[in-house]
Design a protein that fits this description.
two-stranded antiparallel sheet, 9 strands, seven-stranded antiparallel beta sheet, alpha+beta
């Protein structure tokens, strides 16, 4: 039987496994670990890695919190019961090299005292420079996981990601998308829990492969400048649009853990326009909705 305790326990194990995989691949830094408690109920474990051989700043957070929802959150979720439980794992990795993409993943479970429950989550990739072979590989990995459960999942969740990870005020996607799903409760809790864990378990093997493809690529000052600009876009999305950030802050979550998703350094250069035919211009042209990467030839 799937319970809130069994879900949170599995998420804690997922956090530990992913940290082990990332530490091994980085080879130059350790994860720090900090337990924290939420005043309203529950808490979590924040694990952060910094200044590694590959990862400049990264976090793998686990939380299991409970208590009463603020009225604004109840209204936004369209629920009547304010007594909630929420648990999840959230990951953001900012590599040092502009040739290695930023990655984000989140898996979560939400439950109300009245018996209402759902799963949510997703995974998306934000390359500083879009490498089409990597984009195809990434999306095919996600499609493979989705197809094991339902052939409708990938096209639906890919479209959701395009819509969700969209920076409206820039008219561009945050990266090359991925999958995004929320309030999944249309089949058994056992089936949906298995799916969510499959998404979590595909993270390490997928991202490690992308790291290995790109970690030795050469770069210079121009590429680092572009990386800081693209990180700025990442910050804009997380602070303006991201629902997880808003939920965490509005439910009195731990601020340092919530804002772990932000890079240490980012830039906002006034009216930056990439050169004609440049790699930067090519990347911007691919930051748009509707690209079916999984079905493009590699």
């Amino acid at each position: 039987m799937i319970t809130k305790d069994s879900v949170s326990s599995a998420f804690r194990e997922l956090q530990s496994a992913i940290c082990t995989d990332l530490k091994k691949e980085d080879g130059g830094a350790e994860f720090s670990s900090e337990n924290w408690e939420r005043d309203g109920g529950g808490g979590g474990i924040t694990k952060v890695i910094q200044y590694g051989a590959i990862i400049e700043k990264g976090g793998v957070n686990f939380s299991a919190v409970h208590g009463e929802l603020p009225e604004k959150i109840m209204h936004a979720l369209k629920v009547n019961d304010k007594n909630f439980f929420a648990t999840g794992v959230s990951i953001v990795i900012h590599p040092s090299s502009p040739m290695v993409p930023i990655i984000h993943m989140n898996v979560r479970y939400f439950e109300l005292a009245d018996g209402t429950w759902w799963f949510g989550g997703g995974i998306d990739l934000t390359p500083i420079y879009v490498v089409e072979d990597d984009a195809v590989f990434f999306h095919r990995q996600l499609k493979k996981v989705c197809d094991k459960f339902d052939a409708k999942f990938y096209p639906c969740f890919r479209k959701n990601a395009d819509e969700y990870f969209f920076i409206k005020h820039r008219n561009e996607t945050r990266g090359i998308g991925g999958i995004f799903f929320d309030r999944l409760a249309d089949r058994s809790k056992e089936d949906l829990f298995e799916f969510v864990m499959a998404v979590g378990n595909i993270f390490s093997q997928t991202y490690v492969e992308i790291i290995r493809r790109n970690r030795t690529k050469k770069y210079g000052e121009k590429e680092k400048k572009w990386q800081l600009i693209r990180r700025g876009r990442y910050v804009e999305f997380n602070l303006v649009y991201d629902k997880g950030t808003k939920f965490g802050l509005m439910t009195d979550g731990r601020t340092e853990s919530i804002l772990m998703s932000l890079p240490e350094n980012a830039s906002w250069i006034y009216n930056f326009v990439p050169g004609d035919g440049s790699e930067e211009e090519k990347t911007l042209a691919l930051l748009k909705k509707g690209i079916d990467w999984a079905n493009k030839p590699a």
